[in-house]
Amino acid sequence: MSNLLAAINARQAKVSEVLIEVTATPSGSPPRFTEIELCVSAECADRELFEKLLEIAERGCVMMNTLRGKLDLHVRIDARVSGGVRPNFNAAALLE
Predict the structure, then answer these.
(1) Is 28 part of any domain?
(2) Residue 91 within any structural domain of the chain
(3) What is the tally of structural domains in the chain?
(4) Given strand 32-44, what is the order of strands in its sheet?
(5) 24 contacts 33 by C-beta, under 8 angstroms
(6) Do 44 and 50 contact (CB within 8 A), yes or no?
């Protein structure tokens, strides 16, 4: 999440209401996760830009780089394009 917020802030992108919901599927004995899905939602002015920012964040994410190839890992985007994005959104403030 911090990588995504940093990418948004660095580009001063009009993105707000960022939320990541994690769903994991346990299996086996001893129990372990066999599948993880991240659903990333946000309000944004430009969906293409948001998708690019998410791609940048995903490439730099230690967790994603660790888990990729070890289990089924999916990222789903639920970006709502609107003109109602909060103009004062500052992702850097969320990182402090």
Answers:
(1) yes
(2) no
(3) 1
(4) 15-27, 32-44, 72-81
(5) yes
(6) yes
DSSP string across the chain: -HHHHHHHHHTT--EEEEEEEEEEEEETTTTEEEEEEEEEEEEES-HHHHHHHHHHHHHT-HHHHHHBTTBEEEEEEEEEE-S---TT--HHHHH-
CATH code: domain of residue 46 = 3.30.300.20
pLDDT digits (tens, 9 = 90+) for 42-74: 999 999 999 999 999 999 999 999 999 999 999
Tell me what pLDDT residue 80 has. 86
Q: Which residue has the tokens 């209401």?
A: 17
Structural domain containing residue 52: 2-86
Average pLDDT for 80-93: 56
Do 12 and 88 touch, CB atoms closer than 8 A? no
Report the alpha-carbon distance of residue 89 to residue 9 in Å, rounded: 9
